[in-house]
Amino acid sequence: MRALIKKENKPECMEVGQVEKPSCPDDHVLIRVLAGGVCGTDLHIRTGEWVCGKFPVVMGHEFCGEIAEWGRKVQGFKREDRVVVEPHVSYCGACEFCLTGRRHLCPSKKGLGIDINGGFAEFVAVEARLVHRLPARVSPEEGALMEPTAIVCHGVLVKGSVRSCDRVAVVGPGPIGIISAQVARAVGAREVIVVGVQQDREIRLKLCEDLQFKTYLAEDREALLGIKSRYDVVVEASGVSKGIGLAVDLLKRDGQMIAIGIPMEDHSKVPWAEAVRKSATLQCTYSSSFTAWEMALSLVESGKVRLNPLITHDVDLKDWEKAFDALAAGRGVKAVLRP
């Protein structure tokens, strides 16, 4: 079968090639992939900044597909059921985190498309317990973006909290930031703004404005001074030091900062003294929980969170370089690959 393969941990070293179609063990389902979403992690895997757990590996951890086959221990599925998949596989099932429903934090877990062959392929086999059914009203393209939506729901609604009276600021208008703004509005936040940089002006911030969010530029110091210390909740989705500092600036006293963006450097500069003086609550959040996936599916099905507007590139798998190049250059928001 056809797949996008990372061959070794060097810049590039990626190609579309042929790999063996996976088997379907007793507790697995075999999924025919319909669409796969390109994540920022995939861009870092391409450059070698993010090291996979094995090489070669079929990439892709955000995808939607339909059931093609299931193992003898699996019940409740039929062919062509459309599904999405939690990407944390091979967790131990016996540690503190697994036993308390936090398998996404299991120290032994492995990731689809990183440590185990993923969804940028015609077929992928996964444990049935990681599968969620896609509502009939949700398209496969939206399904391919369900994983980042679940990450947002976990950070904003499960670990963090947004109330109907809250003012919310989102720093970083990438896919995670744009979805965060929509989720905050969906649960009733009375004001939601998005802050980006000049490079985001034409595409990403324009999309936020099309979705009816007020936007600001990080370079516009005068405008930001007028909203300093205004927001009950600030979602930090940029993962860069300046974004983290800006998030603390925007946060009001006794406010809540939700950190979702993952810095590529080991150390980030944080205005710690200001955060302490503001009595800030810091919620660092990583990956996604079962509950968050169900929340994500519900919000997208209801239309309160719209994912289609984020898709700026929808290409055949053989054209993966076009999509990766565009996203890396800031000329897009989200890309979908068709195996």
Description:
Helix content is 27%, strand content 27%. The protein is of the alpha/beta class and 339 residues long. The protein has 2 domains: 176 residues, Quinone Oxidoreductase, Chain A, domain 1; 133 residues, 3-Layer(aba) Sandwich (Rossmann fold), CATH 3.40.50. The strands form 4 sheets. Strands 3, 5, 6, 9, 10, 17 and 18 form a 7-stranded mixed sheet that branches. The chain is globular, with a radius of gyration of 20 Å.
How would the blueprint of this fold be written?
Layout: E1 2-6, E2 14-18, E3 28-37, H1 40-47, E4 57-58, E5 62-70, E6 82-85, E7 88-89, H2 96-99, E8 110-111, E9 123-127, E10 131-133, H3 140-143, H4 146-159, E11 167-171, H5 175-186, E12 191-196, H6 204-210, E13 214-217, H7 221-225, E14 231-236, H8 241-250, E15 251-259, H9 272-277, E16 281-284, H10 290-302, E17 311-316, H11 320-328, E18 334-338
Parallel strand pairs: 11-12, 11-14, 12-13, 14-15, 15-16, 17-18
Antiparallel strand pairs: 1-2, 1-4, 3-5, 3-9, 3-18, 5-6, 6-10, 7-8
Helix pairs in contact: 4-5, 4-10
CATH class of the largest domain: Alpha Beta
pLDDT average, as an integer? 96
Give the amount of beta strand, in percent.
25-35%
Q: Can you tell me the CATH superfamily of the largest domain? A: Medium-chain alcohol dehydrogenases, catalytic domain
Helix segment tally = 11
According to CATH, the fold-level topology of the largest domain is Quinone Oxidoreductase, Chain A, domain 1
Largest sheet: 7 strands, mixed
Secondary structure tally: strands: 18
Q: Output the helix-strand order.
A: EEEHEEEEHEEEHHEHEHEHEHEHEHEHE
CATH architecture of the largest domain: Alpha-Beta Complex
Over all CA atoms, what is the radius of gyration? Answer: 20 Å
Helix content: 25-40%
Unreliable parts: none
